[in-house]
Amino acid sequence: MKFDSSRPIYRQIIDSYKKQLIRGELKMGDKILSQREYAEQARINPNTVQRAYREMEALQMVETQRGQGTFIIATEPMLTEIKLEMARDVLEYFIGEMKSLGYTYAQIISMLEEEEKKQGGGF
């Protein structure tokens, strides 16, 4: 996994798991990498991974069962909420960046509509 230096790594780990859940790559009951395995694969500090896993447990995305591993426990309503939250974050970033470039709301909408046509429509 390649990390963005502008955001905390533990948040990027959480977001990566959220995206996998939303895309259906991970499902309820699936076992995820141990903290040690993740740290070794990603070549990052195990404490960073531990923080991400603790946060995911607090969010009730995962549950760690002593001696067995860490498992996905996210429910369908939670997945809907995660998807909406991530979409809002992307939109907030996009709109902020476009405004910083001097575009108005109307111009942003117009550009989105043009791009949709280029890509064949059907959002």
Task: Write the SSE topology.
Blueprint: H1 9-22, E1 31-32, H2 35-42, H3 46-58, E2 62-65, E3 69-72, H4 76-100, H5 105-118
Antiparallel strand pairs: 1-3, 2-3
Helix pairs in contact: 1-3, 1-4, 2-3
Description:
It is a single chain. With 123 residues, this protein is mostly helical. It has two domains: 66 residues, Arc Repressor Mutant, subunit A; 42 residues. Helices cover 60% and strands 8% of the residues. It contains five helices and three strands; from the N terminus they run H-E-H-H-E-E-H-H. The protein has a three-stranded antiparallel sheet. Strand 2 and strand 3 form a beta hairpin. Helix 1 crosses helix 4 and helix 2 crosses helix 3. The protein is elongated. Keywords: DNA-binding, Transcription, Transcription regulation. This is Transcriptional regulator, GntR family.
What is this structure, in a nutshell?
By secondary structure, the chain is mainly α. It has helices at about 10-20, 35-40, 45-60, 75-100, 105-120; strands at about 30, 60-65, 70. Helix 1 (about 10-20) crosses helix 4 and helix 2 crosses helix 3 (about 45-60).
CATH class of the largest domain: Mainly Alpha
Counting DSSP H or I runs of 4 or more residues, the number of helices is 5
- Global mean pLDDT: 94
Shape: elongated
Number of strands: 3
What structural class do the secondary elements suggest?
Answer: mainly alpha
The largest sheet has its strands arranged as 1-3-2
The helix content, as a percent range, equals 55-70%
Kindly report the CATH topology of the largest domain: Arc Repressor Mutant, subunit A
Domain HTH gntR-type: 7-75
Protein name: Transcriptional regulator, GntR family
Organism: Syntrophomonas wolfei subsp. wolfei (strain DSM 2245B / Goettingen)
Keywords: DNA-binding, Transcription, Transcription regulation
